[in-house]
Amino acid sequence: MKMSIKHLLTFPLLLFAVLALLNVSQLDARTRTTRKNVHTAAVPVLAIDRDDALMPDSLAAVDPGAVSIKGFNKRASDAKESFFITNNTTGRMSAVRLLLRYTTMTGELLTQRQVSVPVSLKPGETKLVSIKSFDVQRLFYYYAGPQPRKQATPFQVAYRLTGYDIPVGN
User: Taking a C-beta distance cutoff of 8 angstroms, is the pair 127, 67 a contact?
Assistant: First the structure.
């Protein structure tokens, strides 16, 4: 069988075309690294009741409705917790202090802590804030967020406003 130079040159081009088609067909089968159906949790964070036995008596004078918290987020791999905080008063506020209570899904107390959130809020304003997480070992995730791939325990959080600063001046 006699091959001409023309046939020898078309074989590599044909091989290249077949390989290119194979690579194009593999693009659809690529691995997705982003999560689907991830959205901001619009779940309001529960407020700690005024008659709660674990709440200190010194907090009775603070209006619990002065702030509200929504969109709490903490994945198992996060070192910070984030949430939206809203000023429900008619004046400006800053340095919001909160009592945060973390519980398991069955209501068992994990921990309770007081945090000071450095934020400046105008009346009716909402801002996203982040604080250092209680979970230094990264073993817990917020139940309304995405479920992690690794072994982790879901938790709930409740808050109570313990105080806030009213800025003086501008």
Answer: no
First-residue to last-residue Cα distance in the chain: 94
CA distance 122 to 32: 41
Ordered domains of the chain (ranges, CATH):
46-165 (2.60.40)
- Bridge partner residues of 129 (DSSP): 83
pLDDT at 57 over 70: no
One-letter amino acid for residue 20 of the chain: A
Whole-angstrom distance, CA of residue 14 vs CA of residue 144 = 54
169: tokens are 């001046």
Q: Which residue do the tokens 């509200």 mark?
A: 68
What pLDDT does residue 38 have?
45
**Average pLDDT value for residue range 84-94:** 94
Using DSSP, state whether 8 is helix, strand or coil: helix
Q: Amino acid identity, residue 113?
A: R
